[in-house]
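Sample intake sheet
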Amino acid sequence: MSIYEEIEIEDMTWDEERLGYTYPCPCGDKFFIGLEELYDGEDVAPCPSCTLRIRVIFEEDDLPEMPDEPPDNIGEVAELTVSEITISEQQQQQQQQQQPKAENNNQQDGAEDHCAKIVEKLINAVDEHTLPITLQ
């Protein structure tokens, strides 16, 4: 795994809503790493829009405390993610309708498996109050 850059956590921006840190990516999006990930020893923040990753340099003692309760907006985040999944499924269905039936059946099985995994991750994240999650 290649690392684009090493960044001190003090140079990152705290995101109260998402309970994590962001840092600008050259692609225009932002790298993100959650507070829970940092407490779990993770130090690599991916960019959701490209393949770049940064290594976050930090001391656990300097991190904010983990909240006892999930954020107030956890339902909104879950709803947004479900909406994104629904839009993605609609796009896949439109693409499948334009392909020959033999290919369509194979791709539909793969898309259903992928969507099932995403929904399972989402349900687990809501149950464990660990949103936002990374959907791959």
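Comment: The longest helix spans residues 101-128. The radius of gyration is 18 Å.
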